[in-house]
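Amino Acid Chain and Its Fold in Token Form
===========================================
What this section holds: a protein sequence and its matching fold, both as plain text.
Structure line: whole-number tokens from a learned vocabulary of local backbone shapes, matched to residues.
Purpose: to set a sequence beside its fold so the mapping can be learned.
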Amino acid sequence: MSCSFPRYSSVFSQGITNDGGYICISNGTFLTTDNYFNKTNGSNHGKIILDGTIVLLDSFVNEVTDVSENVFTDTAGGLGLGNGTVIFAKNGVQHILNTTSNAFINFENVQIADTSETILDAGSAGTVNGDLTVYGTFRLASPASGEGPSGSLITNTGGSVTGTGALYVHRHYATMNRYVYV
């Protein structure tokens, strides 16, 4: 599948719920939206062919029910290996959340804007196959109870991790019958 939208366009949305369909964002196209919800409808899982840029002004929630399905596909091999970019640009806290256990989001390139505090929520996982650029704050969270997996992020070879912002990994630990946030 390829995108047939005209190049060099901008689209603005108050929020997107992809209920099992394909969204194509071609090279040179900017899609700016508040929230993005990625869902499953029957056997169809929401997918984005991303060769352009998504600017998120709020959270990214992946609710697909099949952990083997990738959110981002592209014309460069289908596994999030293209040149598309997701920019987290909220003026405040925004979340990356997988609601299905063992699911992950396979990003191409990610940028955290200087105004954003982006949190990869506990139990959520992401892979950045290209560049991770952090100007704001990027946090990998753990459950407040200290039980269960933390948010996890993999950056694959071939990309880089750069920027002037901060990366944090948080973990709660049980000490003397209470959990301490580190």
Summary: The mean pLDDT is 83. The chain has no helices and 21 strands.
